[in-house]
Amino acid sequence: MWGNMVDCNMCGSAGTKPLFRVKGFDLVQCVRCDLAYVSNPPDPEGLRKLYSAGESDYHSELHDPDSAASRRMAAIAARHLTFTRRFVTEGRLVDVGCSSGEFLLLAQKAGFDCSGIEFSEESAIEARRRTGLTVERGTLHDTTIEAGSCDVLTLFDVIEHVPDPLADLARAFELLAPGGWLVLSTPNIDGLFPRASRPLANRLDYWPHPEPPHHLFQFSQTTLSRMVGQAGFSVEGVRHCNIDLAYTFGTPATLARMPKRLAYAALFAPLAKLGPMLNMGDWLYMAARKPKAN
Q1: Largest CB tally within 10 Å, which of 11, 73, 92, 144?
Q2: Across residues 192-208, what is the average pLDDT?
Q3: Residue 193: which CATH number?
Q4: In the chain, how many domains are there?
Q5: What predicted TM-score, i.e. pTM, was given to this entire model?
């Protein structure tokens, strides 16, 4: 279920260079502004199916609090909260793409007035059940939240999934009060591991950093900062991290059964671990602020 070929979301250019092809999807890079994106994304129905628990073992597993995926997400939620509280510690917070609600639970305990928005219907139901909070099913563009009424909007590992990230950032700007905070995270295509492994991607038909078609965009700190600024925000802080090594490369048990993948992990996992120390992590956080009213 592929959609039509698309131009660059940030600058509108149709000029691209190929980066990686997998499952029939083409990850390309804009020759004008360097934004990386899937040039032949799924159509809306295809995207809906990707985030249905019936189609995704990952989303189904998140609904089991004892699963490895759920425990991993709880640990990541704690990291999200730590970064968020570097910039803002109170107010009305809306978690966009709240999944099954792990971050909402922690943010509420920390004193924020919380609600969520979730694209997956099954995950939205689970988040409501787990948190008891208001969780709308849909996107930023479907929400009933009033413009200018939010103090904090969080988009953790969301911006890479949406078909029109610039429009989502513009909508976030509209929903935030003057002086409000946008806090987001996303994989970093310019991280040490992605950069070092990219030359082998097409040769090996394997590049675990991007995840087409789930990830429709791949940002760097530069391209994300530029797009956030284009939407009207001022970038106030960035933190480089690495994606959990077991998630990227596989668990030890899995690697033990797959010698080629074990060799790949042995070559590149040290670079993934080293990346954040050089401000080249394969995952980054960004905090940006809407200007205060004059």
Answers
A1: 73
A2: 94
A3: 3.40.50.150
A4: 1
A5: 0.93
